[in-house]
Specification:
By secondary structure, the protein is an alpha+beta fold. The chain has 13 helices and 26 strands. The protein folds into four domains: about 90 residues, Rossmann fold (3-Layer(aba) Sandwich); about 60 residues, ATP-grasp fold, A domain (Dna Ligase, domain 1, 2-Layer Sandwich), CATH 3.30.1490.20; about 140 residues, 2-Layer Sandwich (D-amino Acid Aminotransferase, Chain A, domain 1), CATH 3.30.470; about 90 residues, Phosphoribosylglycinamide synthetase, C-terminal domain (Glycinamide Ribonucleotide Synthetase, Chain A, domain 4, Alpha-Beta Complex), CATH 3.90.600.10. The mean pLDDT is about 95. Bound molecules: adenosine monophosphate (AMP) and glycine (GLY).
Length: about 425
């Protein structure tokens, strides 16, 4: 199979590794990729949709895998599919489960997926008046893609109002969502979907806040651990019956079948699991810990899903655990500094790997080129072992001003 993979983050590096290792692969092309993926495939420069379509006319492939949310929300999957190529990634309509929080909420309400109570406002003034009346703190969300940063969990009425005022500065924030504040441990539940059937991947926990003990601003994700003790394969399948299946059914019945990775961010509250959000793609940095624990051929599953013939039992869960510590640049998430030289020891601990995200080669020197720069991943027999390896990998990385959390995966330690 000839495959084109789109993206350049840690998620795509993790995907490229398993795709490159598949016996079904003949040729992997990556656009644009990152320096860490060198050797896994051939890089091309095709930053726009017309570039990709033009490349495909002279370079036929059997499968296109779209990693990030922005091209999905912009309809790249539709345009590529229209040329007759199978695509792993949802249509623009189906990607609204992520690109419009208001749409996702309405679907959840329709099919009775448990979720936080909410209100949608077109105008900040109305939202502020509502908050003043309610005398409660709310979770404030912008109704659009914001790279995981369009959410403010306010602690007071004053903070809620300040958050509403700030969120209107975000161009994506055409609508404002106020949500009841939930509490409980979070689970990232991701399923590979073919529009009708789905295969549930190992569960993971992300750590969204910048600092230890879940303090500081929300980020795209500072680290992950998998699988979760609270969610084995059996219980994850049960959770998917509740939060994945009804949504897939709804989307299919409304002529927007979801083909791709459907990611439910779930909070395990005292009143049972509740969905915080859907994403229309693999999680980042969840994918970095999920894929090492999958038993089976992921490329075959992606291709079968893209062709609408997924066997839900094609992928199993391996024994063991995986952990990922994100190494972020100085100033992330507000103003990440670029161009800092990176040094990575040649000798990594057994079970350890470095997956690149915001890196670039400048005159032969690897330098930082984004907020989340590298992912230090550890795989081991136990969660403790996986974490030990992941932090040993961090110790192999030198980057001026690097930020990382010291408490990734604590919830899964005995
Ligand atoms: P989202 O981008 O919607 O996943 O939100 C980012 C993070 O904000 C989530 O992972 C939660 O930690 C937190 N969050 C979002 N919605 C709520 C909510 N209704 N109650 C409490 N925390 C929330
Ligand atoms: N790690 C959270 C996300 O991928 O949205």
């Amino acid at each position: 199979m000839r495959v084109l993979l789109l993206g350049s983050g840690g998620r795509e590096h993790a995907l490229a590794r398993v795709i490159a290792a598949s016996p079904f692969l003949d040729q992997l092309t990556i656009a644009p990729g990152n320096p860490g993926m060198a050797g896994l495939g051939t890089f091309i420069h095709a930053p726009t949709l017309p570039d990709v379509l033009a490349w495909l006319t002279t370079n036929p492939v059997e499968l296109v895998v779209i990693g990030p949310e922005a091209p999905l929300a912009a309809g790249w999957a539709d345009a590529i599919r229209a040329t007759g190529v199978a695509v792993f990634g949802p249509s623009q309509q189906a990607a609204r489960l992520e690109s419009s929080k208001a749409f996702a909420k309405s679907v959840m309400q329709h099919v009775q997926v448990p979720t936080a109570r909410y209100k949608v406002f077109a105008r900040a003034d109305d939202a502020i008046a509502f908050v003043q009346n309610s005398e409660l703190a709310w979770v404030v969300k912008a109704d659009g893609l914001a790279a995981g940063k369009g959410v403010i969990v306010a602690e007071s009425v004053a903070e809620t109002i300040a958050a509403i005022a700030s969120i209107t500065d975000i161009p994506a924030g055409h609508q404002i969502l106020l949500e009841e504040r939930l509490s409980g441990p979070e689970v990232s539940l991701i399923a590979i979907c073919d529009g009708e059937r789905y295969s549930v991947l190992p569960t993971a926990r992300d750590h969204k806040r910048l600092y230890d003990d879940d303090r500081g601003p929300n980020t795209g994700g500072m680290g992950t651990i998998a699988p979760l003790h609270a969610m084995n394969h059996h219980t994850a399948k049960q959770l998917a019956e509740l939060v994945i299946k009804p949504v897939l059914d709804f989307m299919r019945l409304h002529d927007m079948p979801f083909v791709g990775a459907l990611y439910a961010g779930v909070m395990l509250t005292e009143d049972g699991p509740k969905v915080i959000e859907y994403n229309a793609r693999f999680g980042d940095p969840e994918t970095q810990v999920i894929l090492p624990l999958v038993d089976g051929d992921v490329l075959k599953a992606l291709s079968d899903a893209a062709h609408g013939r997924l066997d839900p039992d094609v992928l199993g869960w391996q024994q063991g655990a995986a952990a990922c510590v994100v190494v972020a640049s100085h100033g992330y998430p507000d103003s990440p500094r670029h161009g800092d030289p990176i040094r990575i020891d040649a000798q990594l601990p057994a079970g350890g790997m470095v997956l690149h995200a915001g890196t670039v080669l400048r005159d032969g020197q690897l330098v930082s080129n984004g907020g989340r720069v590298l992912n230090a991943v550890g795989v081991g027999a136990t969660h403790a072992e996986a974490l030990k390896v992941a932090y040993a990998v961090v110790d192999c990385i030198a980057l001026a001003g690097m930020q990382y959390r010291l408490d990734i995966g604590q919830s899964e330690l005995p």
